[in-house]
Amino acid sequence: MIGLGRAQAVRGLGRAQAVDAKFRRQGIAELLLGACERAAAAAGRGDEICLIVNEANAAARGLYERAGYVVKERDSDRGFNLTRLLSRRAPQLLMSKVLAAGLG
Fold first, then answer.
1. Which domain holds residue 65?
2. CB neighbours of 11 closer than 8 A, spacing ≥ 6?
3. Is residue 103 part of a domain?
4. How far is 8 from 94, CA to CA, in rounded Å?
5. Is there a contact between 51 and 69 (Cβ–Cβ < 8 Å)?
6. Lowest-confidence pick of 10-19, 61-70, 77-86
7. How many structural domains comprise the chain?
8. CATH of the domain at 79
9. What are phi and psi of 52, to 5 degrees?
10. CA dist., res. 95 & res. 31, Å (int)
11. Which of 46, 43, 49 is nearest to 2 (CA)?
12. 46 in a domain, yes or no?
């Protein structure tokens, strides 16, 4: 999930990024992520891009970290999360990156 925002106000939201297993490890995810960043910058959606990733998804986390994203918040930072417990949803991370000037 990718969200585009300025400060705390969310300006846009992408639902998901995924690459079919047979096409992974070919740089496609990096290209998609870069395209999202450029589209956000070109649309004037703010100076920061945020995304949510499953905390256990090491491959996706590595991709985002290599691209310059940092963890802003963890589900575990909130303590007991009844919604996550009831939905059996895996713990999530909110990651963000400051968009480079002139990216769009």
1. 2-98
2. 4, 5, 45, 46
3. no
4. 13
5. yes
6. 77-86
7. 1
8. 3.40.630.30
9. -120, 135
10. 18
11. 49
12. yes
Q: What are the backbone dihedrals phi and psi of residue 43, each rounded to the nearest 5 degrees, phi first? A: -85, 0
What does the chain come to in residues? 104
**Other CB atoms closer than 10 Å to residue 96's CB: what's the count?**
18
Helix residue ranges, H only, the chain: 28-42, 58-66, 82-87
**Within a domain: residue 36?**
yes
> Which residue type does 102 have?
G
pTM over 0.85: no
Quick check: is 9 in a domain? Answer: yes
The radius of gyration computed from the CA coordinates of the chain, to the nearest angstrom, equals 14
From CA 32, how far away is CA 38, in angstroms rounded? 10
pLDDT, tens digit, for every residue of 20-37? 889 888 999 999 888 888
Q: What is the pLDDT of residue 78?
A: 61
pLDDT at 3 over 50: no
Mean pLDDT of the chain: 76
